[in-house]
Write a structure and sequence with these properties.
By secondary structure, this protein is α/β, with parallel strands linked by helices. The protein has a single domain, classed as Rossmann fold (3-Layer(aba) Sandwich), CATH 3.40.50.150. The chain is built from eight helices and seven strands, in the order αβαβαβαβαβαβααβ. The protein has a seven-stranded mixed sheet, with helices on both faces.
Length: 210
């Protein structure tokens, strides 16, 4: 059934955009309803240049991926790439991540959340602007299914330590391993700083039952 649904949708109609327009500031978006096939649903927050997004969507046609990005130029470029690749399992949102998480998504619908290289806001007075801070686990817990996972990456060691502290103290999350094949999918930006000897810090936290 699933294979048939995918085979019927190998290509996209000419001119069809993968960007889903956000028309309400309060009405939740049914992310699962954006896709032609019902399958595991994952969210990437801040997809940047989209290099990870494209690799992941192509490698996992059995998963639906929603990528969120605030900057218009980045999201439209990814839209063009995804359309050329005929990715029926990819949809895009242009919005602020924190607002979407808190107000525009339905609870218990996500199998995974990916947060890779969020703005580290390095100055101490700006730390309050960081996406991965004390409120984030509660938002993620509401949106994830049981056993859903949050995957984190950053090159900023101080921010990484904050990420670990935030999730290690969060209720109903436990640390787990990031799969090797997932680590192997790196962004263009990540390749550049890895080549300079700057390592990537990975963490993953699974939502527990109860």
């Amino acid at each position: 059934m699933l294979g048939q649904a995918l085979s019927r949708n190998k290509s996209l109609p000419p001119g069809e955009s993968l960007i889903h327009p956000i028309t309400s500031a309060i009405e939740p978006i049914d992310l699962a309803g954006l896709f032609p096939a019902e399958q595991p649903l994952e969210l990437e927050l801040g997809c940047g240049d989209g290099s990870f997004t494209m690799q992941y969507a192509l490698a996992h046609p059995d998963r639906n991926i929603v990528a969120l990005e605030r900057l218009l130029g980045r999201i439209t470029k990814l839209d063009r790439k995804g359309h050329r690749a005929g990715l029926k399992n990819l949809r895009l949102l242009r919005a602020e991540a924190a607002y979407v998480l808190e107000y525009l998504l339905l609870p218990g619908t996500l199998d995974a959340i990916h947060v890779y290289f969020p703005d580290p806001w390095p100055k101490k007075r700006h730390h309050k602007n960081r996406l991965i801070s004390e409120p984030f686990p509660s938002l993620a817990k509401r949106l994830l299914k049981d056993k859903g996972i949050v995957y984190l990456r950053t090159d900023n060691i101080e921010y990484f330590e904050q990420m670990l502290e935030v999730f290690d103290s969060a209720v109903r999350f436990e640390r787990t391993e990031t799969p090797g094949p997932l680590k192997a999918l790196v962004t263009d930006f990540e390749q550049e700083f890895n080549a300079q000897g700057i390592p990537t810090n990975h963490a993953a936290y699974g939502k527990t039952g109860g």
